[in-house]
Amino acid sequence: MPVTVHDLAAWKARGERFIMLTAYDALTARVLDEAGVPLLLVGDSMGNNVLGYPSTLPVTMEEALVLTAAVARGASNPMIVGDLPFGSYQASPEEAMRNAARLVKVGANAIKLEGGRRSAEAVRRISDAGVPVMGHLGLTPQSVNAFGGFRVQGRGQQGDELLADALALQEAGCFAVVLEAIPAELGQRVTQALDVPTIGIGAGPHCDGQVLVITDLLGLTPDPTPRFVKRYADLRSTIAEAAQRFAKDVSEGHYPAPEHEYH
Fold this sequence. Notes:
Shape: globular
CATH class of the largest domain: Alpha Beta
Strand content: 5-15%
Structural class: alpha/beta
Largest sheet: 8 strands, parallel, barrel
Number of helices: 11
CATH architecture of the largest domain: Alpha-Beta Barrel
């Protein structure tokens, strides 16, 4: 059965930790589905991990739609969370609703957007229409210019502000909140204060779930990577070695061999 918001609520109630991974194509989505990954985020991280942009900011709604549709075609059991890119929801709750509906129409089961109290009305508008909404607080990449770079958020008094944002998102209807690059003690504080699950990325071990970008997890992202990243494979080296072996076989006449010919 596909994962739903009720499953996440039950996991939090039982203290059962879970994961979310990003996915940007049907083939990867299918592999992650077969591996039992319960949530797939078609993140705006597609910008700097797939599309070659320097950040998430240039990602368009059309690009998000194409990749969300591909992931939805590749996976049937995980919850597919489509990310609203920068500029697609900030103007008004009505615009946020229109673009959320576009993601749902191509296969998203839920949507994610950044921001706390400033995004609460958009969250309320979308969730009131029956679309599950995931919030995102802390180091929100779409606000990197305002933050002055990729820096830890939520220190000191900022922690109280972030907690207030999290409570506002929950009140507006969010079914879960991503916490990115905040002190571990703040991650614990927010997780304990919320009735809905938190999903951490660089937010300490006390969140209800954890998320990583798939290219980081697989070791495809070049150095330097954020401190919170743990590589579970080294596919960057594996791919490079495979390409070099192919080139060597071709140059030495070993490929194609008779067994590779069509008959």
